[in-house]
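Hi R.,

As promised, here are both runs. First protein below:
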Amino acid sequence: MAHSETDGRSGAADRATAQVRETEHRAKNTLQLIASVLQLQDRHTTEDAGHRALKSAAARIRAIGTAHRHISWIDGREEVSLGPMIREIVEDLARSPARPGVSIDLSLEAIAVRGDLAAPVALIVGETLGNALAHAYPAGRAGRVGVSLQQTDASFELTVADDGAGLTQDPPIPGFGLTVARLMARQIHGRLDMSPLAPGVWVMLTAPIPDARAQA
């Protein structure tokens, strides 16, 4: 009996150690992700745009921090519930631009995915919604932005749609934020599409829901 109890404690300790190592590994990868994003932004930044660049960088770091807070251990695996994570990021962005005339409608299904998808999805939400809030409603124009999340078979769809000024160029020239969003979409083997609405712009991420048991 004593031997069995010792084996049990040893097994629990081994699992705990493995979880800590996995968390540390994920944190290192996320920090590298932040560094890569900031380096990419540095190549797109002029001196006059330095203040805006710093604000954007801070928003990205907050989004990734939110992603980490929403990662949980479920049956020995990292998992994130996308709905609550997206809601928190949206609430943070809704406060930061101080746009009282722009309301945000949320429609979020309960979808859980592997923990390694959390930071890329968080960045995509931040970039697409932040872009809409910053550019879709010039001169204090009022409007509405819809953010939706739904599952379709073995994939999920994240949509950000505004009723603002629309695209000024056809085809649109991607800015830094959209470039980041597309890079993150590719990282999770997804696709980011953008289309004009009447009025406004529609952006959709479509990405597979990987098997949690295959988590790296």
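And here is the second one, sequence first, then its structure tokens:
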Amino acid sequence: MNSCDIMLIVAHPDDAEFGAAGSIAAWTAEGKSVAYVVCTSGDKGTSDRSISPEELVKIRQQEQRDAAAVLGVTEIVFLGMKDQGLEETDEFREQIVRLIRTYSPDMVVSSDPYRRYVWHRDHRIVGQVVMDALFPYARDHMAYPDLLDKGLEPHKVEEALFFGADEPNHWIDISATFAKKVEALACHASQVREFKVDNLESWLRKRYRRLADGSDYELAEAFHRVKLPD
């Protein structure tokens, strides 16, 4: 795949499914192409002291591939950065700009960088780096001029959706794709165990019914939507 309609740029394996799996299932059913960029390896995402970080990385990458396949996503880029180690650096931003220019998505989805107080730091950092990469860096030819030498021309993304927002302004109905969301999240068995829930489907239904507040839908994924300027 040389391009995609929608790109998910997330911190950890499972973030895309928690944040947007119902929407992703709807988009791919419509024939839209979706690509994932998973920034960290998720090597710290367990309370099981018998699992090594190296083993956990392999488990989580396969879980991510399985979950993506459920949703019709075939393109996944693993950047392999350290879990709990993301920093807002020029190097990280350039990586994201390079991927945006490579895949030329119309829309990018990530975690909200402005959520207050309790929020995984990696989620906050990746959201900020994505927002800055979208505007103005991916758009401006003088940003990272070495990318031009590699044939990566500037690209203007039309809009961004940020999940986990304190102030959502955009909801997507996932009533018809909720079962796919449950199936995809069930693939992340190493993470689902960490939540210690007896019934994943029931737990998720309550969560996404609550997130539907403010919309006309029974079940919804909630985002803060940003239309990017020219």
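A quick note on the second one: Strands lie at 6-10, 34-40, 75-81, 107-111, 159-163, 170-173, 220-227. Let me know what you think.

Best,
J.
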